[in-house]
Amino acid sequence: MDPMDNPVTNKDVWGSTAVFAIIGILLLLPLLFVYPEVGFLQSPRAIIAASGIFWGIFSVFAFRAFWGLYYQHFYPGWVRPLAPLNIFLYAAFGLILWFLANRFNTVPVLVFILLGGIEGLLEHVLGVYCLRILEKVPVFNALNPGPVFIFSFFEYIVYWSIVAWLAVALTKFVPQVF
Q1: Percent of the chain beyond pLDDT 90?
Q2: What is residue 41's predicted lDDT score, i.e. its pLDDT?
Q3: Average pLDDT of 93-100?
Q4: CA separation (Å) from 50 to 45, 46, 124, 162?
Q5: Separation of alpha carbons 140 and 56, rounded Å
Q6: Hey, is 100 helix, strand or coil?
Q7: What per-residue string of b and e applies to 159-173 under the rule 16 or more CB within 10 Å gives b?
Q8: Do 166 and 53 contact (CB within 8 A), yes or no?
Q9: Cβ distance 140 to 133 under 8 Å?
Q10: What was the pLDDT predicted at 166?
Q11: What own/partner pairs with CB < 8 Å and gap ≥ 24 does 5-11 have?
């Protein structure tokens, strides 16, 4: 079946937003208890490693699984084998988010994940306005930017929550390193 037979609609995006919001809340709420403030404050290496691991694996998977449907429409072919380098980019993002989260006088893991949602929103703003993904990716031609931006916030809440859970696992199972 050709994906063009079923273009993504704004209604689809709103439905996906609801699903990601629920998953994000379910992932985030226990983190508030499992990853106490002191543990989060003392774990920059775990956050850096977890960010690199998650985003490196996710990028390789996404580029392999969705190149033809999505990425090929706005990236040149030579970018595809570079997907593993996202390990370094997102490790840096993880450190920046950890650093910023520790500057607020509140629950740092919550701020970390909310900042991750904002980071995802900013990535999608760049994708929509600089890479023009809504114009270039045929299955997205019917979408408006607003729903995409709101979706991206909740999508990245899920992703950065997974990073935080991975960091918790690293600090619990490899404490001598993290």
Answers
A1: 83
A2: 78
A3: 97
A4: 8, 6, 22, 9
A5: 25
A6: helix
A7: bbbbbbbbbbebbee
A8: yes
A9: yes
A10: 96
A11: 6/139, 7/138, 7/139, 7/140, 7/141, 7/142, 8/139, 8/140, 8/142, 8/143, 9/142, 9/143, 10/142, 10/143, 10/144, 10/147
